[in-house]
Amino acid sequence: MSNRPPLEFHVPEPPARPGQLSEIAGTVVPEAGLVRRPDALSSSVDLRDLPFELIRVLDDDGQAIGPWDPRLSPERLRQGLKAMLLTRAFDDRLFRAHRQGKTSFYMKSTGEEAIGAAQSLALEPQDMCFPTYRVMSWLHARGYPLVDMVNQIFSNERDPLRGRQLPILFSARDYGFYSLSGNLGTRYGHAVGWAMASAYRQIDSIALAYSGEGTTAEGDFHEALTFAAVYRAPVILCVTNNQWAISSFAGLAGTENTTFAARAIGYGMPGLRVDGNDFLAVTAATQWAAERARGNMGPTLIEFYTYRVAGHSTSDDPTRYRPREEAEQWPLGDPVARLQQHLISIGEWDDERHSALLAEIDAQVRSAVREAEAVGTLGKSKPPLSEMFEGVFAEPDWRLIEQRSEIGAGNA
Amino acid sequence: MSNRPPLEFHVPEPPARPGQLSEIAGTVVPEAGLVRRPDALSSSVDLRDLPFELIRVLDDDGQAIGPWDPRLSPERLRQGLKAMLLTRAFDDRLFRAHRQGKTSFYMKSTGEEAIGAAQSLALEPQDMCFPTYRVMSWLHARGYPLVDMVNQIFSNERDPLRGRQLPILFSARDYGFYSLSGNLGTRYGHAVGWAMASAYRQIDSIALAYSGEGTTAEGDFHEALTFAAVYRAPVILCVTNNQWAISSFAGLAGTENTTFAARAIGYGMPGLRVDGNDFLAVTAATQWAAERARGNMGPTLIEFYTYRVAGHSTSDDPTRYRPREEAEQWPLGDPVARLQQHLISIGEWDDERHSALLAEIDAQVRSAVREAEAVGTLGKSKPPLSEMFEGVFAEPDWRLIEQRSEIGAGNA
Amino acid sequence: MRELNMVKAINDALGVMLAHDPNVLIFGEDVGYFGGVFRATEGLQAKHGLKRCFDTPIAEGGIIATAIGMGVQGLRPVPEIQFADYILPAFDQLVSEAARLRYRSGGEFWAPITVRSPYGGGIFGGQTHSQSPEAIFAHVTGLKTVIPSTPYDAKGLLIAAIECDDPVIFLEPKRLYNGPFDGHHDREIASWAGHPAAQVPEGHYTVPLGKAAIVRPGEAVTVLAYGTMVHVALAAVADAGVDAEVVDLRSIVPLDIETILASVNKTGRCVIVHEASRFGGFGGELSALIQERCFYGLETPIERVAGWDTPYPHAFEWDYFPGPGRIAAALRRVMESN
Amino acid sequence: MRELNMVKAINDALGVMLAHDPNVLIFGEDVGYFGGVFRATEGLQAKHGLKRCFDTPIAEGGIIATAIGMGVQGLRPVPEIQFADYILPAFDQLVSEAARLRYRSGGEFWAPITVRSPYGGGIFGGQTHSQSPEAIFAHVTGLKTVIPSTPYDAKGLLIAAIECDDPVIFLEPKRLYNGPFDGHHDREIASWAGHPAAQVPEGHYTVPLGKAAIVRPGEAVTVLAYGTMVHVALAAVADAGVDAEVVDLRSIVPLDIETILASVNKTGRCVIVHEASRFGGFGGELSALIQERCFYGLETPIERVAGWDTPYPHAFEWDYFPGPGRIAAALRRVMESN
Ligand SMILES: Cc1ncc(C[n+]2csc(CCOP(=O)(O)OP(=O)(O)O)c2C)c(N)n1
Ligand SMILES: Cc1ncc(C[n+]2csc(CCOP(=O)(O)OP(=O)(O)O)c2C)c(N)n1
Ligand SMILES: [Mg+2]
Ligand SMILES: [Mg+2]
Predict the structure, then answer these.
(1) Model pTM score
(2) In this predicted model, what pLDDT tens digit does every residue of B66-93 receive, in sequence order?
(3) Residue A324 domain-assigned?
(4) In D, which residues are within 8 Å of A247 by CB distance?
(5) Global ipTM
(6) How far is CA D149 from CA B126, D40, D179, D250, D271, in A?
(7) Which helix (H) or strand (E) holds A219?
(8) Could you tell me if D309 and D278 are in contact, meaning their C-beta atoms sit under 8 angstroms apart?
(9) DSSP letter assigned to residue D108
(10) Across C224-247, average pLDDT
(11) Which DSSP state fits D25?
(12) When you count CB atoms within 10 A of the terminal residue's CB, does the N or C end of chain C come out lower?
């Protein structure tokens, strides 16, 4: 025993820190089109190789190749492109609104727009997503009114969430978008329960849950996977592995020697690992998992491999903890540019239409912000004070009634 | 969509319920000696097949075969046999003591004695186990004084835990046995922190943690695995899969299509699946994982496949939820009988010595119980009342001092 | 009307609701085939089917998360947590999710779940089968907390809780399952047989949440209690020979402040009793509320009788448990002082 | 002596302890290279090395479990929970394990851990970055709960907490990190510059746990507060023009009952202030204790000023926050009545 080196524990470190050479460009990326596409109703026992592959459809030239090509209509591709561009424009505008003091907080999805957009379009209106704050493209793809979103971000009188919630922690039931909250991971299990309720009620709605890769470390993640596996709930469980959790890299969530998708093996469910910057691959994987769920084959875990291009939120500066150039060198490229290139390469898009679309989106976002500003920005306008006491319970009890009147917010 | 059958969720059910034919005898058990034994310092990436095998050393004739044979000395084998027999005799005696009203609660390890006994002997005195209530054989293998154990079970004046804890929820630091508690799963992560502290302090102690298979569903289990994997902590993480969690069978923990050992794959650690009723296989797997831990290769997850022969505790009657004959039909046999058979087959044991040993053990247990009874059984004797207020903090604060004197339990 | 003990009354309530409302479903550790470690769900799976009453993995957070997700779709799940001591792994789900969902979503989503859990001591369950966590739930805005003390109330309150659109923590005093334990642990064990509140109507009825019951009217002093302590308080009142008014709160959120204030305004004296440890317990809130609202009518200080500020100690169960002796002593003190 | 703001004083305490005791180590989400989202651990990894101050997975239960295991081996871990709102996933580890380990093991094992966590409101953090969970910790037997209100105290209390052999919850009022916020949110933001309690000695010193500070002596009424509310109370006292004695509790467990009783016995009046919602909050315990022990000396009812019984509402931050206006009104009521 004495001739062994002393015990040590290991603290994972990211490939590079500010001032060090980013190694990310050197990440070996498998070519598009190579991963097999088994039948969606296969036994999970026969799918244990998939978590170590990377499903990609769009190749470097913007061509869709291989068995996972979902063969979407050009119309659908343009819808996706628009949703992604809108998300990006909206993010940029509202991030600036925060800098201008119009709201308290904002978070961008830059670089990850394909995920929410593709999945929103791939699923049915009656399906429900259990989102994170970084899949706003789900809502943009489904046409959620921009002005309502800005009203929420400004916590003004028209805020659909009545001034009660932090900016961007939306809730939009009619758009299949479950209530967000600041607590990471807590809603993953709600998706499982919701999916079980669909089955119980024998309605045809499935659930889709999101977790950041950092959040997979929470016990809630494991319990949700366990329940989903045990009851074969019709749910799609997604991990958006954007490499970063604030300042912590993905290795800190326990995947230096494995993948997030591989977690699926231990629960007896399929795990797919998918290029999250590839609109077509995201769509295809989602369709496959949805077919499986609707066929009573239970849950699928999908890891979307992507990159968080912006800072975590308005509260941090990413250049303090990672090389500035890392985002540009990210080898899977920009999801917007890749879909745009694909559309152009199949002759369904051109620069002119692109510029026109950008202008249209810009006008939409501007007008929504203008309209919301007219109502008021944070602190300049808010819902009636009585809203502070509503919604604690279905009906307020004497404490709330007393306190409401104590503060002069009405008796009724 | 409309031509699909309606959504359903699935509620797992055990192979048989009371009155149904037990299918357990039909469980296909792989032969002993077939599983490869890779180098203990191999990369986890090359070990992903192991969780789906079953490591067995003792064959049906009691011969030790294959690469996992730990080649233990006859002396060590006899030590193991004695620890297991002692555990069984102690369990039977104290279970009866509960029926006689001498204590409030008891739990037996019947059928699972090999696990704690083999691991206790395979690890070093300075190592620490983080037990469940079903590995008391760890203590019996290390010679914990029986009378102290009975005093604890009787919560009498000499109870080493000062009357504060439920019977059998021991703590025995000097025997490498961490404090038990009623809360399932909560100590799994303590083992990881303890192991990291060893590494931090550069002492040569590793940790071993136990979880029942039912308990693996807790978030704590996953968080412990994550921390162990991330920091490559020198810890052995065991799951004792005894098929039952009170009335729930193992499938309810999410392994109808996979194994508990396979959970390891998703964390990038090796997962071994081991015949838990085979003293030699348990020893060999533990030695392998210990070598790995001491070689700074981090944690190993080991699933011990075994069977809970008795009821869950003194509070339940297992014939209410499983066929009475299931235990006898368990295809991996009785760990005690199997080790005994092996010792006999190598000429190191015989019926005479066995009877002598049983008599010796019986006398030891009787004398310990008699001695503890002389001190007092539950309610007949207890530690001084002041002990109720000790140990809440390192030093009692004014509340405890006031309350202690209010109850007349002394001022100092 | 039949005579039922408390656990049978709870079982009856669950059976009634399963029959009454297809949206009700029940799950938890060992609740399915086995019928629960306290038999509260006995026979329900056999009668109503595998999908209406089933076992779960051992993961309390997951049980509550699943229930919330189901509740959001309009179901009324009634999850069981096997012991209230094991509700803590689900505490974040209850506080950050169940309790907050309606508020934060602007009313779009809510979680009409009823979390049943046996709680309290007196059964030699040691540290982790005896605790009373009601205070930490009472502090959470958005949760209701209900605690019955009789078979009749248990059934009626449980049905009311299941029909309530808010998340309810339903704590069942396990020491009362089989009989109205009055704390005289050295005397013969009583069963519910012959107790008036063990007369339980068949079928559907409710006891409203937020209404206390005056279980013994009196003029001299008000005793506030809930759960097992209601019966212990009644015994203490008899032992002390004081004309106390004993109020069974039945739910601590919503709290029946009117009944409490009316009683204390009448008696001018108050003793609060609970099993949970005293410091930071729910008795503090009750004491503060009464003091704020009845200050000028109080003759003597409000007293609290509660568990000591230690973990629940196995061998010292009867020293720890707020028994009739301690309550009677407090009653005498309150009557004598001033 | 240097002038430090509160977050720098905390950073200083951590640095002193890392240098002073090789058994101290620090970990939590983003605390390593990045230095924490509030910069409390800035520079510590660079100075003391990767194994003394490092990042963790996002799993609060795992963080505390790991800390307990380390503590058992004699280390003194100082884990950070990024926001106190996110301490709930670790609640079971804190209550069922850290708090109970010494007791249940008959003194064989204990967990000398100090859990740091920014808490409280006033920063437009919305529901889940603003809460004050101290009451649920105060109720747990076996945990200590400490809340500083100045840079000087923050450093001295944190060092005392780390050296304490019991588990300590160390709640840092995040609104005070950069300045002594007095609740006048519409006025210019103050920094710690020039504040006497921002004078922080170099090196090692302690402020004992369990000792309150009289931050403003007075005769007319006692104000009990902690954290941000100490400064808000001081402003309210000035606004109301009342000769109040303002007591900063500094730790709520152990509680400095002597100082509290001495003050209330002197003034005969008491206002309790905390940010957490009122019902079931720690103010109830304080009110009950005082009422029990100073009953005959109280001139007027003890008042509580606290957050409303709602979740923490983003747009209504200043309506919810117990500001100087509400506290001054309570002071006036208490002085006027009777
Ligand atoms: C329970 C909980 N713990 C900690 C936090 C603080 N926090 C907010 S976001 C974040 C990082 C999340 O990373 P990841 O899951 O990878 O999602 P991403 O932001 O990359 O989309 C942390 C630690 C929180 N919100 N909730
Ligand atoms: C957190 C928690 N939840 C529930 C229980 C109640 N309980 C005690 S033992 C048990 C079953 C455990 O089964 P398993 O993990 O398989 O261990 P085994 O008893 O088979 O060794 C349950 C549900 C508990 N003690 N703690
Ligand atoms: Mg991330
Ligand atoms: Mg088991």
Answers:
(1) 0.98
(2) 999 999 999 999 999 999 999 999 999 9
(3) no
(4) 30, 33-34, 55
(5) 0.98
(6) 44, 16, 10, 7, 18
(7) helix A219-231
(8) yes
(9) S
(10) 98
(11) E
(12) N
